[in-house]
Protein 1
Amino acid sequence: MSSSPQVLVVGGGPGGAAAAFWLARHGVDVTVVEKRRYPREKACGDGLTPRAVRQLIDMGFDFDRPDVHRVVGLRSYAGDVMLEMPWPEHSIYPNWGATLRRADLDGRVAALAEAEGASVLQGVEAVAVVDDRDLTAVELRRKGEEPEVVTPDYVVVADGSLSRFGRDLGAHRRRDYPFGLAVRGYWESPNSTDGYIESQLDIRDREGRAMPGYGWVFPMGDGTINVGAGLVSTFKGWKDINTSRILEAYLASLPGHWQIEKDPIARPIGGKLPMAFSVGPKTGRNWVLVGDAAGAVNPFNGEGIDYAYETGRLAAGFIAGALATGDPATLGAYDEALVAEYAAYHRVARIFVSAIGNPSVMRTLTTVGLRSRPLMEWVLKVMANLLEPEERGMAESVYGAIEKVVDLPGLRRIKA
Ligand SMILES: Cc1cc2nc3c(=O)[nH]c(=O)nc-3n(C[C@H](O)[C@H](O)[C@H](O)COP(=O)(O)OP(=O)(O)OC[C@H]3O[C@@H](n4cnc5c(N)ncnc54)[C@H](O)[C@@H]3O)c2cc1C
């Protein structure tokens, strides 16, 4: 890089690519550095909800390509009880979702940012140069070359769930907030063009004992399916079990329509899901955290791609504002915008995941809930964050009602 860009984006996943796209759209000189090279693997279910599809459409993503598989809704199982729910009609979001391998998705979104005017450098690792917790410069490292030091005006930290760069700036995760662990693999299946993504809320071991976790099958439309399992740190006994064992148990009881062979196409891989905006501070004098680096995953459903796009876009707006006004204090408004947009929702989500960590609450919700289509359609809307803007007021009281339902005696109180 011959000179420092106005904005450097660390990480070329969904959060970084979206931040770069929208910064370039605002006319800002922006460079993304991605330490790996596209197409790069990422442990992920590869599921895009209608919210994520909306963000991608806004960036000009081509959903008509043959490797994109559109899905019309969610099929949910709790044991043998099953319910199929189409994605709801919504004034902002489409009534369909999609699946696409992250190995293909992320490079393509980075290319959209590049077409918009951003520079995208692959195989470049960024390391923070910090002086007394103040980010003074960034060192860019390429294999076999001398490091290069740049001094951008602002840095977007989009380096994912482990966020080494963010930690070097003093960002840390709240231990009392939930986080998820999940693992996924690909299997061949004759049913890979199924129009529904599928989840299992009640996983049992060989002896029929309930395990703390959930499983999913996301059909990829290309002869393969993405099968995964996860758990949340609020689940009782989560420390005594690993996600591979949950995946094993889930695979053993997978619904017959998937017709999979025993062995996956490649060895399953896993990762962490930092949730409920658990990581902070989210801004410094000259930097902002987005996506997993900010802990942006939705605790209700483990969705993080969309929130990486949304927070990347939001951060881009505030950085463009700070550059235009010359006032770095403008960045602080990013924090406030996150609170305004997500705080109420995530507070309920945290209570919800605490409640379902209690196996008897989970059993009641899944067995009673899945027998009621209207209730479950509403739950799907809440869990995928697909309420209409005018329903938000209503949502506050509805969230209050959920709090009452799930706030059982003995449940650990959630701090606001
Ligand atoms: C098993 C599993 C299944 C999941 N399934 C889904 C799902 O189906 N749908 C969904 O919406 N979400 C899902 N998630 C969550 C989703 O994967 C993340 O929320 C999402 O990837 C966050 O995007 P990001 O851009 O913040 O981070 P990432 O996608 O992790 O991107 C960060 C990028 O930064 C790069 N990087 C890191 N450090 C540096 C550095 N120092 N310099 C340069 N580059 C760097 C990395 O190589 C990486 O490419 C799942 C997560 C897991 C673990």
Protein 2
Amino acid sequence: MRFGTEVGKKHSQELIRGITMNRYYCSDGTRVSESAIKSRLTAAYRKHYVDTDGVCEGCGGRAEGTAHIVPKARCKVLHKTEYIWNPVNWFKACHKCNLKAETSQITTLMNYKRILPVIELIDPEKYRKLI
Ligand SMILES: [Zn+2]
């Protein structure tokens, strides 16, 4: 095997860049960096949460932020990173319900029936385990 070919070199450079820059795949095959994810999410929060009534959808208590129905890390694993900044994947939540959404306790949330189709859409594997 020959080392140092142009193709091999280009490939390893891309691998190194992929690792060092932490780029994550979207459904359309494009890749985004962590900083791009953060700025898109911030922009989306600004756009979609202008008027918030501050009620947690999970328990009816006071919302303390935004929860992701399919967690951000899972979106990256699924190569559906765009759902991190897509409001279809959010709900207003208190800290407790935000944590529940990341565990099997998701089924105990008040809005579970509403968010189930979102899980089916983004994470069919998890959906099949839940139903
Ligand atoms: Zn709550």
